[in-house]
Amino acid sequence: MVDQDRLKEVKNATIQLFTPLWQSNFNKNKRDIARCPGVNTLKDKFKNIPCVIVGAGPSLDKNIKYLHAAKDRTLIISCDAALKTLLSNSITPSLVINLDPQEYVVDFFKGLDTRGLTLVASTVIHPSVLKMWYGRIIFYNKYAPDIPLFKQIQAVANEVGTLTPGGSVLSVAYDLSFKIGANPITFIGQDLSYSSGNVYTREIIHKEENLSSIYEKQKENIVSEMDIFGSDIPTIKSMSVTKQWLEWAK
Which of 128, 151, 231, 233 is least enclosed by beta carbons within 10 angstroms? Predict the structure, then answer.
């Protein structure tokens, strides 16, 4: 069952924190948005093609070996934070997807050759990320009709098309996989808690962060969810919202 109070709490906190940055980023990105294709151009382009959505959770390190067998027969959609891990393991994703509007996203791509890669980017992505990406860029608008700014952006750039956020980049990647017609859809590295004691895949930045530091910084946002084995496990509210969103979307 969807926890409406938790959904509302996370959404209100996100709006309050990011609205000025969303507006600033969009204003600076308008020229790039005008010259690049929108996500609408991908509709049904990969109909009935198997798809793997790759997250940057610690389980990616354990399971990435399975991608090698599938990489030439599968559409691979990587979240931005997982790209370095994939490339360091000789796996080139079909699409890389972004949601976060903050400047630190540039760290995910530092030292990487992004030529020949395709970034599916929010229209409110930080402009610094666009400047360092050398491959193809496809834009999307965040579908959030209850957020006035996104309604305004969609009206201005309606031809771009939309993807629906739901707590994390995972939800946007999932929506994208449906829009392009992929089937079946599989997840790897999509940890929605910190049950292993690690925070991210080994290649990711923020290596100074560990479970203790995350819980300390997020202590106001720690909640309990049931894991796949039926046990209660601590997680953060945004991950809990993503879990609820996926249960709704399926």
Answer: 231
| Residue in 210, 144, 177 with CA at minimum distance from that of residue 50 | 177
Q: Classify burial at 170, counting beta carbons within 10 Å of its beta carbon; exposed 0-12, middle 13-18, buried 19 or more.
A: buried
List Cβ neighbours of 213 (8 Å cut-off, separation of 6 or more). Answer: none
Structure tokens at 189: 């590295």
Residue 149, pLDDT > 60, answer: yes
The stretch 96-109 carries a mean pLDDT of: 94
Q: What is the mean pLDDT of residues 226-242?
A: 72
pLDDT score of 215: 59
Average pLDDT over residues 128-154: 94
Give CA–CA dist 189/60, Å, rounded.
Answer: 4
With a CB cutoff of 8 Å and minimum separation 6, the contacts of 217 are none
Which residues sit opposite 96 in a β-bridge? 78, 119
Q: Which fold has domain 4-249?
A: sialyltransferase cstii, chain A (3.90.1480)
- What residues pair up with 78 in beta bridges, in sequence order? 54, 96
Q: How far is CA 139 from the centre of its chain?
A: 14
pLDDT above 90 (res 240): no
Omega prior to 234 cis, within 30 of 0: no
- Burial profile 51-81: b = 16 or more Cβ within 10 angstroms, e = fewer: bbbbbbbbbbbeebeebeeebeebbbbbbbb
Residues listed for the chain: 250
CB distance 195 to 214 below 8 Å: no
Q: CA-CA distance, 1 to 102, in Å (whole number)?
A: 31
- Name 118's bridge partners: 136
